[in-house]
Amino acid sequence: MTTELLLRMSGVSKSFLGVRVLHGVDLELHPGELHALVGENGAGKSTLMKVLAGVHRADGGTIELEGRPVSFEHPVQAQRAGVTTVFQEFNLLPERTVAENVFLGREIRRRGLVDGRAMERATAELLAELGLEGIAPRSRVRSLSVAEQQIVEIVKALSHDARIISMDEPTAALADHEVEVLYRIIGRLRERGVAVLYVSHRMKEIFDLADTITVLKDGYRVDTVPADGVSPSELVRKMVGRPVSAVFPERLEPHGAHVGRVRLSVAGGGNTQLDGIGFEVRGGEILGLGGLQGSGRTEVAHALFGVERFTRGEVSVDGRRVDPRSPRQAVRSGLVLVTEDRKTQGLALNQSVAANGRLVLDAVWPLGSARRARRLPGILSSVELVARGGHGQEVRYLSGGNQQKVVLAKWLATEPGVMVLDEPTRGIDVGAKQAVYRLMRELAAAGVAIVLISSELPELIGMSDRLVVLRDGRVAGELPGGSGEEAVMAAATGSPHGDGSAAHDPRASASAGDASPDGPSSSEENGGGSPARHEEAAP
Amino acid sequence: MTPNPTQDVRGTGDSGGSRRSGAPTALAALGRGGTATVALLLALIFVVIATQNPSFFEGPPLMSFAKKAAPLVILAIGQYLVIVSGEFDLSVGSLVGAQVVIAARLIDGQEAMTLPVIGLMMVFGLVVGLVNGLVTTLLRVPSIITTLGTMLILFGAVRYWTGGAPTGALSESFRVPGRHGIEGVPFLGELPWALVIALVLAVGAVFLMRSPFGRSLVATGDNDVAAAFSGVRVWRVRTMAFVGSSLMATVAAILIGGYAGVTAQVGDGLEFTAITAVVLGGVVLGGGRGTVVAAVLGALTVEALFTLFNQLYLPSTIQPSVQGLIIIAAVAYAARRGDLRLPERLRRRPAHPTERSLGTSRR
Question: Which domains, and CATH codes, for chain B?
């Protein structure tokens, strides 16, 4: 690493609608350095990136690029200056080719016409530099995988002759082998002297890649440390501001009337995507539903919830046979689903916390909703919701973790007997994850039957009393709680247990390696979890 | 614990911010372009009118303004229901025209026919609303197309039925709600029935929006997928919004018929005036935001503006152009102040490529 300074941000502050989200943050980048930005959701990481990218303007502080003060008012200005950003959601045109996307807005021209060949050649060169001959410049972006699309974004950044690339959770949507490709690309970028600002929740990546780590909390910079001078658990402590004692909270003493009774039973459930689904969940029990992405976990949840219902088999809730044809009927029978995609399926973002909280009551029990909603303030405080603007605040202004707490409160208000949680901790910070775990334990102790769907194996194993693993829409096996990750992966992939299952699937070994104190934040995306694979699914 | 915190700001006739106590938030609400902004705009226009015509605020001229504005207020309430649920209703103008023509032809001057025909008009309104709603929700035709279709169908059918020129006559009692009022009210002189009806409907709409139905409606407009996952029967609430809009148009038709009489042009362009009113009130196109009160104030503002034009001897033919300007300006203002409604929808779309399973390259 050279000592010359590429970028210096000092005292950067930013407020939204009077709420200060960045308090005088400093950050320095050197050529060829990978600087990781960590912190809980809502700590200000994305805002800081957006200030750098010219999406937001800082209210205070200075940004110097190679010693010259700059102030980007528009992302294009930042790009021209060599500062580009790869956001979580890609800004690609799906119907255009790779080359057209890379040169979007500044096409190479010849005699006033777009020179497609020249653009394709230039794109091919850039791809070759990164060692990625596999992507054809002429293929349409729609036909590419998520990882390849991400690469196109990076190539687009490089074509701007970028000297600083910031990446916001670049691996969130990637499978394991794709993450390796990203690692390689990042290596090449650094060889070229490009500085990378990297936001991630995953400890493993941060320690694999970063030279320097800056920790943000509540908009303040907590510390900047060299990556080899800090341990993962120390880093987590800095992020949450307190020691994370145990990763998963202990089971609580059950006390509810329903503890031990079968509350949900499924036998021979099937539809176009599922077949022979059968399991039971008792009150006080957390059943983990595991499997690779596409194995049918979310489909089972949707079938139970009446979205894409079972056409065969039997479902009973509390001993009563049910056949929900809509979420409304499922809720009436005492079964609720916390959907995996909170923004598109879980919340009406422009409505207040209170309005979202009582939406189910309004929709399902219009006559009794006012009476039932009286419990809502208590529920909201029991899920540890932190909303600066009170319950009148619109949920779009809340952090991911707090939004998830609103979703949970919304369902808890219905006093469910069976709760299906689909990826309840995806994209939320360490502190909020802990709150969700504690809440799940409390609910279980009170006699609620819980079905947990998670792509994070440590979470699935750590929280579940029992595991049902799915493969290709069928039950591949049932495992006791505390099973090893290899056993779960073996069932999920169908490889014989014991022998090369770890080698067969590198993810199993990767995540087994870091099921350490920082488990929840570090776990790999274990082959599961398509980010938003599920179609509209509205009944 | 009172249900107060849960009796939320949405649809309470008070847009978001101003309910949160304190002067700074009231100021913020003003800048945000909610109820406060349109109220201010209305007050401003009234002041200008008063300087032009100081006698405007004496009872009778004000009441005649109210009588004239009432149908638009009622239409705006109906249009609000549909817009806040994320849809459009372009058919209300044609429906008003059709209803007036039907009334004239069937009543044909016979007093005894008045009530039965009004009942029939209500049923007709209900049917049109049901058709609009069910075609939009169950056949998944975008509402702008559905209601454009019903608008043309009604327009053509009425012309065909009457042979081009409306026939028959309205009865005297039919014309009472649109023309007359409660006599001998101190200061005001005559309190128009139209005003009374509009007030009752507005108050009813405010309470409706506070009800579970109203909350479900707004949530549906904001995010229909999330609403469906929460147990809202999206097709049902949206259909009911269309029915509400058509019934409001029917009431407006009774008032307009009574006030203005029967012509072939009655109702023309009213759908756009209603949309202008609602948009001016800050109810963002695309749904999920804004309040009934703002929509009502928007209607009053549009009507006040037209009154002002009359006073300034501007030709009434310019009114559509002004409406066009208002719609563009109001939506541009909403977009500029960062009302994320539209960008959010757009942002959701690029998520689609990631909806495929990972690592599967389709070449």
Answer: 42-49+69-337 (1.10.3470)
**3-class DSSP state of A385:** coil
* pLDDT over threshold 50, residue A169: yes
Taken in order of first residue, the domains within chain A and their CATH numbers are: 7-240 (3.40.50.300), 258-334+418-427+451-528 (3.40.50.300)
Residue type, B324: G
Interface test with A, best of B220, B346, B354, B363 (most A CBs within 10 A): B354
* Minimal C-alpha gap between B10 and chain A (Å): 7
Neighbours of A454 (CB within 10 A): 27
Q: How many angstroms separate the CA atoms of B319 and B304, rounded? A: 12
For residues A195 and A32, give the distance between their C-alpha atoms in angstroms, rounded to a whole number. 5
Distance separating alpha carbons of residues B280 and B14, to the nearest angstrom: 15
Cβ atoms A431, A240 nearer than 8 A: yes
* Cβ distance of A344 and B226 shorter than 8 Å: yes
Residues A286, A297: Cα–Cα separation, whole Å:
15
Q: Is the pLDDT of residue B246 over 50?
A: yes
pLDDT for res A82 = 87
Chain A, nearest residue to B1 by Cα: A374
Q: Does B215 touch chain A (CB under 8 A)?
A: yes
Report the gap between the CA of A136 and the closest CA in chain B (Å).
10
Within an 8 Å CB–CB cutoff, is residue A469 touching chain B? no
Residue among A17, A89, A175 minimizing CB distance to B359: A175
How many of the other CB atoms lie within 10 Å of CB of B21? 8
Strand partners, A277: A269
Joined tokens for residue B297:
């104030």
- Count other Cβ atoms within 10 Å, centred on residue B346: 9
For A198, half-sphere exposure in the C-beta direction (CA atoms, 13 angstrom radius) is 31
Q: Note whether A354 contacts B234, CB cutoff 8 Å.
A: no
Instruction: Note whether A354 contacts B5, CB cutoff 8 Å.
Output: yes
Residue B94 DSSP SS3: helix
Among the listed residues A416, A440, A405, the one whose alpha carbon sits nearest the alpha carbon of residue A287: A440
Report pLDDT digits (tens) over A212-264. 999 888 788 888 989 888 887 788 777 766 544 447 888 888 887 888 889 99
d(CA A449, CA A320) in angstroms, rounded, equals 15
Q: What is the pLDDT of residue A90?
A: 67
Residues of A in contact with B215 (CB under 8 A): 355, 358-359, 362
Q: Which residues contact B71 (CB under 8 A, 6 or more apart)?
A: B96, B194, B252, B255, B256, B259, B270
Q: Which helix (H) or strand (E) holds A404?
A: helix A400-412
Quick one: what percent of chain A has pLDDT higher than 70?
87
Helix, coil or strand: residue A110 = strand
The two tokens of residue A469 are 């693993």
Burial class from Cβ neighbours inside 10 Å (0-12, 13-18, 19+) for residue B61 reads: middle
B 25-64 near A (Cβ less than 8 A): 28
Q: How far is CA A366 from CA A14, A171, B283, in A?
A: 42, 43, 25
Find the Cα–Cα–Cα–Cα dihedral B238, B244, B247, B249, rounded to 10°.
-90
The structure tokens 């009130």 sit at B281
Binning chain A into helix, strand and coil, the percentages to the nearest 5 are 35, 25, 40
Q: CB distance from B357 to chain A under 8 Å?
A: yes
Paired with B192 in beta bridges are B181
Beta strands in chain B (DSSP E): 181-185, 189-192
Helix, strand or coil, per DSSP, at residue A27: strand
pTM summary value: 0.70
With vertex at residue A492, the alpha carbon angle to CA A487 and CA A497, rounded to the nearest 5 degrees, is 35
ipTM of the complex: 0.78
**Residues facing residue A195 across a β-bridge:** A164
The vertex-B182 CA angle with B179 and B184, nearest 5°, equals 120
